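Entry:
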Amino acid sequence: MRYCMLVLGLLLHGLLAGAQAVPYGHNPAAGHYQAVRGVRLYYEVYGAGPPLLLIHGNGGSLQDFKQNIPYFAQHYRVIAVDSRAHGKSVDPGDSLSFEMMADDFAALLRSLRLDSAYVLGWSDGGINAVVLALRHPQLVKRLVATGANFSPDSTALTPALWRQQQRGYQENKAHPPTDPVRKNDWKVFLLDVFQPTIPLPVLRRVAAPAFIIAGDRDVITLEHTVAIYRHLRRAWLWIVPDSGHATLQEHADEFNRKADAFFRAKFISSAAH
């Protein structure tokens, strides 16, 4: 009997492990392409309920949300997307901007016949979430932005990151790559070297309630994160203790619960100005 129970336990463990191994970013059962604005955006859909758009960071893909999608898919229709020039969303163009990507996401939501959605973005995705709310306010119900910045200089980035980016640019600008893969990587890299350049007072135009998050050891300076919060009309702020830039991965369970609570809150407090 003990042997049979042991075998059964091992089988169940194997089945559960297999059930958890969802190939996010490469899941034919959930994946779709949508032609928008000259590119084919790849996205995956999980769960049912109010729509929730997930936007990853620079150089990443929707796979970055593998610790978040299972939680949110219990209550939301999760739409996780590969941004233009990232993942499976191939972009043949030679330029890239946050405004361009925000317009892509707006076109995607409209193509899915959604009048609005909750939006959660990490790093560049957080920037995109706010830019989407600025350019297409009717589409954003509420937004969560973790590790976002609105200027590309050392007032927003930690000195180490800013120096690293500048060194990479100076060492390679005279000989930009020509093969397609490295050329795309260079375009994505340049996005963060020169952008975004959004004056913080512009953030007062954001109508959607916002939840601004950063790690206490983030590559975005604490002063800049607090300034973002203070320039938003309706916002929550969370500085995550013992966390770097990857708040949604390093503290996934707490992050998921707090973001969900923000989306569900009946009353959104106003930032103290």
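The chain is about 40% helix and 20% strand.
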